[in-house]
Amino acid sequence: MNKIGFIGLGVMGAPMAANLLRKGYQVTLYNRTAGKADELVKLGADEASTPAAVTRASELVITMISNDDAIREVYYGENGILSSIMPGTIIVDSSTISPSLARDLARDVTAKFADFLDAPVTGSKPAAEGGTLVFMVGGDKAVVDKVEDVLLAMGRKVIPMGPNGSGSTAKLAHNTIVGINTAALVEGMAIAASGGIDAAAFLELVQSGGAASKMAELKAPKLLNRDFTVQFSLELMLKDLRLSSVLSDNLKTPTPILETVKSLFQMADSMGLGELDLSALAHCYEQWINKRITNSGAQDSIPSALDAAADSKADSSDRRRSGRLSLDVPLKLSVYQWEQEGSFSGQLIEGTLCDLSESGIQISSKSPLEKDMFVVIHFPQDSDLPPVTGRIIRIEASGETFRYGCMLAGLAPYQRLQLEAYINKQTISAG
């Protein structure tokens, strides 16, 4: 079996295909995004224009795709795998997908008198590059034996898990542990940082004691160097945790830790960290404790404005409180009030952002407002801040201008840090 098709050339797929080429296999490639195959073609691969063309040219087709929807497109699309599969072809899916979809693929591939294995992998980008992946395989053991040599050209171990769907189930259970371990590592580091413990010394302790883990081994250097380039992305980890949550519900298996950790990754993803390495979860904790959990002297591989908020908070707050600098950021305010006699809603007025307090913000306006009135605050476009709801809790009049203390409602911790970063930037500019 020498003619191999490979579909999906992302962070994992490209180095896996490269290892097949290095081991002498004839490889035909397809990727949905153009240009991803260029370097592999230089190594001797052929590139096809559709999944169907790859399948026609191959005895064995391996797919490594990001999610269920993309898998359906590659298999069931107009020029998908199933449109051209020949009897006797073996299809191996190494993606992380739902077990139910893996079983559906097995059923439909088998109906074409071909064979299907769900064979996801463990070991992120470094293992894919080094050819040390571990395959967990669901499907007929005789078929597993036929493709084992090909899989070992990309990995170091092949573990049969049972019938079709078992490989996908094992992968979701495995990645649940990976996500929990990552969150546990970062949370422990946050405790240590809050207590004044050096990050490098603490990580040495972790790896020397009962808290040691593969994730600590992989992520310690990235955290210490603040290198959040992708080994395995945060958004893909969140995708796997969501799939695992659905699976555990279907299996009626309680997973309270999974649900908590999934929520942590959802917070991180909502902060725009999804395309970074999953170790970027550290940014969440750093905003909550208002300090870095690792080397404050290291420069992030991808700079974060929120780090600037934490680093400059004390200095900028002192500068603002000193009264020597005037913060004057124009705002738009949509004014609302509870329904009562004389109430009104939907009025848009001009305002100015004066400062950030512990409980909210201070704004000024020439429009008279009332205590307990609700306003929606619209920040300038360059702030990248969403509209924020505030309730007026304090009013000070000075001539024709009113200064209002507004308590902010429903403001997530990261949004507060983002707001503070913006205010600090304006303060520095005013100085």
TrEMBL record:
InterPro entries linked: 3-OH-isobutyrate_DH-rel_CS (IPR002204), 6-PGluconate_DH-like_C_sf (IPR008927), 6PGD_dom2 (IPR013328), 6PGDH_NADP-bd (IPR006115), HIBADH-like_NADP-bd (IPR029154), NAD(P)-bd_dom_sf (IPR036291), PilZ_domain (IPR009875)
Domain PilZ: 318-424
Signal sequence bounds: none
Domain 3-hydroxyisobutyrate dehydrogenase-like NAD-binding: from-to ranges: 165-284
6-phosphogluconate dehydrogenase NADP-binding domain ranges (all copies): 3-162
GO biological processes: organic acid catabolic process
Highest taxon above the source species: Bacteria
Annotated Pfam families: NAD_binding_11, NAD_binding_2, PilZ
PROSITE patterns the record matches: 3_HYDROXYISOBUT_DH
GO molecular function: cyclic-di-GMP binding; NAD binding; NADP binding; oxidoreductase activity
Similarity remark: Belongs to the HIBADH-related family.
Protein name as it appears in the record: Uncharacterized protein
Organism: Paenibacillus baekrokdamisoli
